[in-house]
Structure formats: structure tokens, C-alpha cells
Amino acid sequence: TVPRRLCILKGIYPHEPKHKKKVNKGSTAPRTFYLLKDIKFLLHEPIVNKFREYKVFVRKLRKAYGKSEWGTVERLKDNKPTYRLDHIVKERYPTFTDALRDLDDALSMCFLFSTFPRTGKCHVQTVQLCRRLAVEWLNYIIASRSLRKVFLSIKGIYYQAEVLGQPVTWITPYTFAHDHPTDVDYRVMATFTEFYTTLLGFVNFRLYHSLNLVYPPKIDGQADVDLKPTEGKEYAMDSESYLEKLSALSASLARVVAPAHEDEVEMDEFPVEGETSEEMDTRKKEQEALEKQKKLFEGLRFFLSREVPREPLAFIIRCFGGQVSWDKSLCIGATYGVSDPSITHHIVDRPRPEPQLVGRCYLQPQWVFDSVNAKMCLPVADYFPGVLLPPHLSPFVTEQEGDYVPPEKLKLLALQRGENPDEESEEEEEEEEEEDDHDKEEEEDEDESEKEEEMKLKKMEEQKTQSNKALPVKVTAGKVRLEDRKRLEQEQQSEEKRLAIMMMKKREKYLYKKIMFGKKRKVREANKLAAKRKAHDTAVKEEKKKSKKARRA
Amino acid sequence: QDIRNTVGNIPMEWYQDFPHIGYDLDGKKIYKPIRNKDELDMFLEKMENPDYWRTVQDKMTGADIRLTDEQVDLVHRLQRGQFGDVHFNPYEPAVDFFTHEVMIHPVTNRPADKRSFIPSLIEKEKVSKLVHAIKMGWIKPRKPKDDSPSYYDLWAHEDPNSILGRHKMHVPAPKMKLPGHEESYNPPPEYLLSEEEKLAWEQQEVAERKLNFVPQRFGSLRQVPAYPRFIQERFERCLDLYLCPRQRKMRVNVNPEDLIPKLPKPRDLQPFPTTQALIYRGHSSLVRCLSISPSGQWLVSGSDDGTVRFWEVCTARCMKTLPVGGVVKSIAWNPNPTICLVAVCVEQSVLLVNPCLGDKLLYGATDQLLESYVAPEEERVQPVRWVTATTEEHSKGIRLVIQHSKAVKQVTWHGKGDYLASVVSDNSSMQVLIHQSSKRWSQSPFRRSKGMVQVVLFHPTRPYFFVATQRYVRVYNLLKQELTKKLMTNCKWVSSMAIHPGGDNIICGSYDSKLAWFDLDLSTRPYQLLRHHKRALRSVAFHRRYPLFASGSDDGSVIVCHGMVYNDLLQNPLLVPVKVLKGHVITLDLGVLDVLFHPTQPWVFSSGADGTIRLYT
């Protein structure tokens, strides 16, 4: 287990040897191979001695317990050897960007551990530490407004932020008690978490300082006054209330240097060499869009109903400049109540909300997520409570040419371009319905004509066979066949290609066939999805028609 | 003690089913008292008997006993938790052994120990050990507790020297795949699995599944449950991070179009046959072999229906039908334009036929040439018998019959038109025979057999002789009478062979659907192995003038390739397939049986198992 821990902490992984048989003494049995250099590198690690010390400590402690020497036990416990992982972090990530690049797993793990119960599976301190770091991270993302994409998946909620130009993605589970699986080795997870917490702590420190924020984070003085101490006491113990207030995510953080208002310096533009003016324009546009997205919810006041997951929504809304509050009894840090008239959006997730107040939109939580992904406030009509929601699309998919694009995505893209596809589509639908009838007739016509042609062909064939049998040769007037020049050319080209493929070398032919197979499969999958969608749409349409008829009747 | 029952201290249930309850001192059974009281009697007794409450049953004897007053009293006292004895007093006054008062006299008179006056040595030793341990640093005084990890700016001085070599070698773990639309809690309907797909998903191996979850749709966010495999997935990721071998793999990002070799366009390599022009119908069975007159005007074909047919090439008219009474295995027109003679293999004999077509002078001269033969004076021993045709045969056109001892497989002419070679399906050294038609003289050139001979060929210009066995092609020099070369075909079973008119290149078709091109100057291995056909190759042919060769196969197609041979020895031949010709119907799993080029035009003939001969121009 010590080598395993070392490998995890030092980030040593096995390698695939170039000649598996040669290395494995002629056998092809699956084995893992480490580089000898890596193993030697592990041996030089000073932390190995710390681990040994710890082992000795455990042995002594056990002995003392066995002999019931309580004084010794106390003394040993006081002198429990500890170790730090700073140097390993520094060694593995020599630059800060390296650390940011590898932050995905660290964040996901910390967020998972922070939801663990404080009993049983791992140390309480670890859970608390993870929670603290996670909250610090969320607060940083809010302060820097660097969240970009969010996604509600069936596994959990995915977030993607752009920190110093690096995309960082993490997933948080939905807040339910865990059904702890038996086939998971928690010691391995704990070792990973040990390293990840260290890493995340240092990263947080650095990030907070880059924004001139105080680390460990402190709630801004003004906000602190707003939070009355009595209110806090009801909710949590003094020792915990600080973290709780912080994790409420409703207050801004204290800064080391008071922020000068509007200190956004206009960035000078440095044209990159070899960049055309068009590229520069697009870049500029992108930047503008980004700035706009950062201020997506600016000026909006949200209120979260109690059945809505508070933390993710509060986090997202705050990330885009909105103000958010919730019921006072739900969590600490609520800033305004339900009846506040300035509330613009009320997020609810129940089929029939209680008497609605005038002057605010009652919306389902998906609206927030979809708006963030669309980089614009979407029309609210689709998201009213009790309404069948439009599909929630993944923001991480960028369709290439030839991929299947769901129609909702197309609609969204049109919306982003500033068109309003809804009206058109409705009109189209009506037209389509009319067209459908025409189409059917036409199809029937076509069918008939096809049948006739077939009949003709059959007759011709019969004649041919007959003429073969009966010798009297009959000459019929030939028809002038129009040669489709384009098609002929295409045929010729395809034949040339076929012939060239015949001449390929064996290995290249194999590769070529593999590539073509992959391409074909992709097309097939896209077609399958499209067909499924079409079938679904027609089914829905028919149902609609039926219901319409029923209503009419 | 009054012992009435001698069974001892046993559970009395053991006697439950017996009429007696034990034995008395004399060993006689003690019978249970007769109890014939029913519920009513019991009740009446309970009501009437004033002593009922103090009556108990003696288990040992089974008799009813009425408890005495003392006994009832005892029971009451025990119930109350008192002592059984009435006279026992639990609260007797305590008598002190030792008084609290200090006595004036000691109890013992022993003087105090010396060690109670001097410091303890053991303690001293212990203390000195502790002192020593502290001095040596073995025991540390309590450290101040430092629980929370303190963080600082770890990357304050980013030192470029700290980037070690191993960082350059480091392969960062690939990030986890980002979720697609199908993972959404409310995906578009096309991403949901249908029933069959779900079933298929369940039956798949866990490792083979494309998605590790079943897409689901929830009407609203509050209905979304926890994902049960969340912790497992994180754990699997951890395992991947430290147990999976990492390797940098260059992704082959090739454009598949680039893989296709750049060949000259077939259009630039014209002329070659492109379309089917004529069909020669007439045979009723497989047409095994074809041959064409050196002028290119007449075509001869041999078939399984026991006939040889002569056709005019341009009109597809059958000029003559010659019934030979057996399967025609091979047929060859004399390449010498001054001689009009066709060699036909029929069973055990080779017929030399004068077709009597074309110029009357020409075929008359051939007849004269054959008749001018004068038998030598002394009879020489020959492996075959030369027989002059009977008059009946003569009228059909047969001039000479060379009778072999075994069935003849193939016949081929030398370029000059005097010698012809025949292959006998035999395993002895007499497989190959060379005949001289003018002298009616045959010989067997080989002393030993080197395997089953498939095909033989004469070199068109030089005195070489090619013999193809199943896997090798041997080249013999006929003048020096020695083996000059042995070509490895890399095929399992050679079916056919053709030689380039230049004489330096050979192609071999094989039953394992390969075509091997040999450059005799280059090496004994094939210069190129072409796997164009899907089924066994039956025949191959070279064009006499144009750089074309063709191969016919069981898949019913004839592939015409451009095979340019350059005079420059340094330049390798250029092989380009130019046309796939289809037309023959596959019958009995056989497609094209023979292909043949027109001697002057870029036309190709093919004979098939469907009984037709087709001309492609």
C-alpha cells in the first residue's frame, strides 16, 4: 500500500513497453510495467521516511494500547508524525498553469467528498476541508465571473469555468445521501483526495491573491453587518456559521485593496502578426460577447423557492451578476423575502405554484441553465411552471459538419443570430399540413407512373426473350438515349477510384477500409437519430391532429 | 427424607405418556392418581373447595397436597423478598473490628526499613533514562498543535529550471469525456433508447457499452434522483489515473483520399477494351478454351459438349463445328501465319486440325506440308503414337492424331509453328512432351518429375521453356538442356501463365485469386502480387502488341490491366488496372474460363461457363 500511495501522490503511472514480449520474458500475460527511472525517482522521495515514521508510530501506539500504558499513548498521540505535500505539488506542477490544467479531477473529487456524511467512510477533517475548499473555489468563480457553461445531466451538474484561459470542468452530484458502494476502495480515494486538497488549497490561495481578495476568504464588511448575529445563531453554531455564511454564496468577499470603481482599463489592441483584420474583428466580437455573457443577469433579482436546489442556482445566478435570495428558514444569508416587489424572477419547481404575485416571472430552474448556455436570456414562455419543458441540450457538444444536429439546437443558433424562428416554424407547420395532402396525391401519381413504367419494362423483357426463342428477327426503331453527361462523368470517376483502390498496398487498403468504415458508421448513426426524431415528430403531430379533431367534434 | 418415588431428579415429563409415574422402594410402579375431572368439575371444585388456592400437585407422586399454614407463610415471605427463616434478623448491630480511635501501642514492633530513608535507586534510574532520552531528543516536549494546513503562494517564483526532463516526458492524463446531449436530464427524444436498444444495452458486456448509462428523461428538475454510480465512476477514474499505462499515440490523421495511389488515368492509357461488343452463342456447355488465328480473323473454341467451333471474329458467325467426341481441354492455333493448323486436346490425344478457313492457297499449302512427310527408315521409339487421320476424319479436317498414353491437359505451340508441347496429367517424368509436327517426332524432355505440371510455355523468341508446377515456375534452356531459373510464385496453386511478347515478363494466375507479375531480370520473386479478383483466377493473357494483360476469374469478371514494360532496364514495369469487364453469368460456381487477346486489335475475348464467348472492344 505504501508504493501505491507513493505512486498516487507522485503521479507515477505505468508504461506500455515497446516490445511487450521482450520485457515480459516471452510471455504475453497482461502485466503492468513501470519505468525503472520512475521507481528510482520514488525511492528518493523524502516522504518515504515520513511514511516509515508513521508506520513506527502506529506500531508503538498499538503496543502502548496493548500494555494499557495510557501515559505513553497520550505522549505518542501528541507527537504524531505529520507530513506535508507542498513540495510534491510544486514538483508535479512546476508552473501555475500546469496545476490549473489538471484541476478537473481535483475539483470533482473535492465536491464529491464534501457531500459525504461526517461519519464512517473517511475522516471528518477531510470532509470539512473538502467542503471548505469547494466553497472557496465557488466564491472565487463568483468573484471572477469565470463560469462559462453549466449542464444538468442525470449524473450530476457539470460546470465549466475559464480560469486564466484554461477551461476547468467539474461535476457535482445531486444533493442526496450516498448509497455507499461496497466495491470501492475508499483508501485509494482518500489518498487522491489528500493530494487534491493540498493542490486545491494552493491554487485557491494563488487565485484569491490574483484578484486581490483576502485568503482565507472573508465576507465583505458591509454584508457582515447585514447578517445579524442573532439570525446566524439560530441556524448554526458559532464555529460553523462562518463557513455556512460563506457557502451561502450570497455575499461578496472582502478585498485586500479596496476596488476602485470601474477600474476596467480599456485593453490596448495589439494586432498579432499574420492576423488579418477579419480575424481581429471576430476576436473582438468574441470578446464583446464574453463581456456581455458575464453581465447576463445583471440587474435581475431572483428568488429561489424552497424545492429548488439552492446552492447550484445561487452560484450560477451570482456568477452572472444577478442577485439572489431565498426563504429565511431555508439557509443562512437570505437578503430579501418572498414579498419583495423588486423581485423579477421567481424560480419554482412545482406543478401548480401558490397564488402568484404580479410583476415577476415564475420560471422553472432549467431556464437559468439554458440561458447561461445560450449566452442570452431566453424567452420565458417555454419555462413557466407546469409546462412541458424544451429539451436541455449539452453545451459541450460542438457539431461538426456531417454530425447530427438536434432541431432544438438549430433553433437556438437562429435565436442567437437574432432571428425569431418560432413564428416561421408555426407558419411552416400550417403550410406543411396543407402540403402534406398535396404530397400524398403526388406520391400516388408517381406510384402509378412508376408502375406503368415497370409494366412496360416487363413487356420489353418478355419480347426480348421471345425474340431470342423465335428466330425471325424483328428490328424495332431505336430510341435516342439521352446521355446524362454529368452522371457518366461521375460514374467514370468512381470507377477510376475503384480501380485505384484495387492497386493499393495491403496495409494501406486495410487502413483505408477502416477509415471509410468509421465514416460510414458516423453517417449511419446520424441518419438513425434523424429518423428517430422524424418518427417522434410525426407521432406527436398525429396526436395533435387527433386531439384537434376531437375538440372540433 | 421420605422417598416414595425412586426415579430420582429427572424431568417428570418423561413419564407423561405412561400410566405410572415412577417406582416405589420395592420397585413397584406408582400409578398416577386417576384424574377424570373435566373442566366443569375443575370449576366446581374451584368454587366449592375453600382450600383450592392452597392445593398444589406434587409432581413426583401426582397427588394433590394441601399446603399447611407455615408453608403458605413461607411462600408469602419469599414472594415479598424476605428471608425464609422467620427468626433471622438481617439488621443486627455491626461490631467494629478496628476502631477509628488511634491506639497508643503499635500493632507490630518492627523497626522501619533503611530504604524508607534513602532515595530510590530505581526511580533514579528511571529519571536518568528520561533525562537521557530528552537530551538525545528521543522524547520530545509537546509540540504546539498545527492542524489546519497553511497555504501560501507556492508558485511565487516560477523557476524555469525546475521544469525537469521528466516533465517533458510526462504524459498528462486525458481529461474525462464531456457529456453529450444523451446525458441530459431532459434530452431530445431521439436520444432516448427504444425498447430493443435498451435490451441490447442490457445484454452487452459492461466494457463494450458505448454509454455507461441509460439515457432517461425527467419532466422537471425536482424528479431527478441521485445517480447511483457516481462514487464508482469517480473511483474508476482514480484507478485509471494511477493504474492505466499511458502512451502517446500518434493519431493517424490521414485523409483517406491521400491513401489512394496516384495512378495515370485509364483514359490516358487507351486503347483498351471497354464495352462488350459481341456474344458468340452456340456451345451448349462450358467453353474451356479459346484460340485465335494469327491473322485475327478466325476464332476457335473448345467446349465440354464435345465440339470445336470455328467462328468469324467480326460477325460472330459459327463457320464450322467439329465434333470431336470428348471434352476439349485445350486448343491452340499455330502461330505461324503460313501454316493453318489447330492443335486440339481431346482426352488422350492431340488432334492437328486444318480448319480449311481463309485463303485456299494457305490451307492447301498446309495440307501439302503435312503430306510431304516421309517416314524415316528406322522406326524410333517414341512416347506417343502418330496416327494419320482416316478419310472420314480427313473430310472433317483432322489431319494427324497424336495418341498419348494418358489424358492430355494442355497443348501449346512454339512461336515458329513447328514444335508443340503437350502436358499430360500424370505424375511421372513423362508429363511434358515436345512434338515436332513436320517430322512427326516426339520426345520427353525431362528425366524426373518435379511435381504436377500445370502449364507449359515456349519463350516467344529465345530457346527457353517455362514449366509451371503448383507453386513454382521453372525456366529451362532448351539448347543447353539445363534449368536456368526457378521462380517462386508465392501462390498456393498456379492455374495459368502467360508471357509478355518481349519475353522478359511473366504473369501467373493462381487458384487463390492472386496474379503474380515476374520480371525475369529483376528477381525470382514476383515483382507485384495483384489481388484484384475475389475468386480463383482461371486464365491470364498478354496482348501481343499493346501493353495490356487480362485475367479471367471465377467471379465472372475479366480485369484488363495496363502493363507497360520499358526498354530501360532501370525502370520497373507500370501496372495499372484499367477496366473491369463483366458479362458472364456464373454457372456451377464458375465464371470466366479463358481469356484471349486479339493479335492486332485491343480486343479481348472471354469464354465462360455459361456457354458463351464474349468479345469486348
UniProtKB/TrEMBL annotation, chain A:
<keyword id="KW-0698">rRNA processing</keyword>
<feature type="compositionally biased region" description="Acidic residues">
    <location>
        <begin position="421"/>
        <end position="452"/>
    </location>
</feature>
<feature type="region of interest" description="Disordered">
    <location>
        <begin position="530"/>
        <end position="553"/>
    </location>
</feature>
<dbReference type="GO" id="GO:0000463">
    <property type="term" value="P:maturation of LSU-rRNA from tricistronic rRNA transcript (SSU-rRNA, 5.8S rRNA, LSU-rRNA)"/>
</dbReference>
<dbReference type="InterPro" id="IPR001357">
    <property type="entry name" value="BRCT_dom"/>
</dbReference>
<comment type="subunit">
    <text>Component of the PeBoW complex, composed of BOP1, PES1 and WDR12. The complex is held together by BOP1, which interacts with PES1 via its N-terminal domain and with WDR12 via a high-affinity interaction between the seven-bladed beta-propeller domains of the 2 proteins. The PeBoW complex associates with the 66S pre-ribosome. The PeBoW complex also associates with DDX27, PES1 interacts directly with DDX27. Interacts with IRS1 and UBTF. May interact with MAP1B.</text>
</comment>
<protein>
    <submittedName>
        <fullName>PESC protein</fullName>
    </submittedName>
</protein>
<feature type="region of interest" description="Disordered">
    <location>
        <begin position="416"/>
        <end position="494"/>
    </location>
</feature>
<dbReference type="Pfam" id="PF06732">
    <property type="entry name" value="Pescadillo_N"/>
</dbReference>
<keyword id="KW-0690">Ribosome biogenesis</keyword>
<dbReference type="InterPro" id="IPR036420">
    <property type="entry name" value="BRCT_dom_sf"/>
</dbReference>
<feature type="compositionally biased region" description="Basic and acidic residues">
    <location>
        <begin position="536"/>
        <end position="545"/>
    </location>
</feature>
<feature type="compositionally biased region" description="Basic and acidic residues">
    <location>
        <begin position="453"/>
        <end position="464"/>
    </location>
</feature>
<feature type="domain" description="BRCT">
    <location>
        <begin position="292"/>
        <end position="385"/>
    </location>
</feature>
<dbReference type="GO" id="GO:0003723">
    <property type="term" value="F:RNA binding"/>
</dbReference>
<dbReference type="GO" id="GO:0070545">
    <property type="term" value="C:PeBoW complex"/>
</dbReference>
<dbReference type="Pfam" id="PF16589">
    <property type="entry name" value="BRCT_2"/>
</dbReference>
<dbReference type="InterPro" id="IPR010613">
    <property type="entry name" value="PES"/>
</dbReference>
<keyword id="KW-0539">Nucleus</keyword>
<feature type="compositionally biased region" description="Basic and acidic residues">
    <location>
        <begin position="480"/>
        <end position="494"/>
    </location>
</feature>
TrEMBL record, chain B:
<dbReference type="GO" id="GO:0070545">
    <property type="term" value="C:PeBoW complex"/>
</dbReference>
<dbReference type="InterPro" id="IPR001680">
    <property type="entry name" value="WD40_rpt"/>
</dbReference>
<feature type="domain" description="BOP1 N-terminal">
    <location>
        <begin position="15"/>
        <end position="273"/>
    </location>
</feature>
<dbReference type="InterPro" id="IPR012953">
    <property type="entry name" value="BOP1_N_dom"/>
</dbReference>
<comment type="function">
    <text>Component of the PeBoW complex, which is required for maturation of 28S and 5.8S ribosomal RNAs and formation of the 60S ribosome.</text>
</comment>
<dbReference type="InterPro" id="IPR028598">
    <property type="entry name" value="BOP1/Erb1"/>
</dbReference>
<dbReference type="Pfam" id="PF08145">
    <property type="entry name" value="BOP1NT"/>
</dbReference>
<dbReference type="Pfam" id="PF00400">
    <property type="entry name" value="WD40"/>
</dbReference>
<comment type="subunit">
    <text>Component of the PeBoW complex, composed of BOP1, PES1 and WDR12. The complex is held together by BOP1, which interacts with PES1 via its N-terminal domain and with WDR12 via a high-affinity interaction between the seven-bladed beta-propeller domains of the 2 proteins. The NOP7 complex associates with the 66S pre-ribosome. The PeBoW complex associates with DDX27, BOP1 interacts directly with DDX27.</text>
</comment>
<dbReference type="InterPro" id="IPR036322">
    <property type="entry name" value="WD40_repeat_dom_sf"/>
</dbReference>
<keyword id="KW-0690">Ribosome biogenesis</keyword>
<dbReference type="GO" id="GO:0030687">
    <property type="term" value="C:preribosome, large subunit precursor"/>
</dbReference>
<dbReference type="GO" id="GO:0000463">
    <property type="term" value="P:maturation of LSU-rRNA from tricistronic rRNA transcript (SSU-rRNA, 5.8S rRNA, LSU-rRNA)"/>
</dbReference>
<dbReference type="GO" id="GO:0043021">
    <property type="term" value="F:ribonucleoprotein complex binding"/>
</dbReference>
<dbReference type="InterPro" id="IPR015943">
    <property type="entry name" value="WD40/YVTN_repeat-like_dom_sf"/>
</dbReference>
<keyword id="KW-0853">WD repeat</keyword>
<protein>
    <submittedName>
        <fullName>BOP1 protein</fullName>
    </submittedName>
</protein>
<dbReference type="InterPro" id="IPR019775">
    <property type="entry name" value="WD40_repeat_CS"/>
</dbReference>
<keyword id="KW-0698">rRNA processing</keyword>
<keyword id="KW-0539">Nucleus</keyword>
<feature type="repeat" description="WD">
    <location>
        <begin position="280"/>
        <end position="321"/>
    </location>
</feature>
<keyword id="KW-0677">Repeat</keyword>
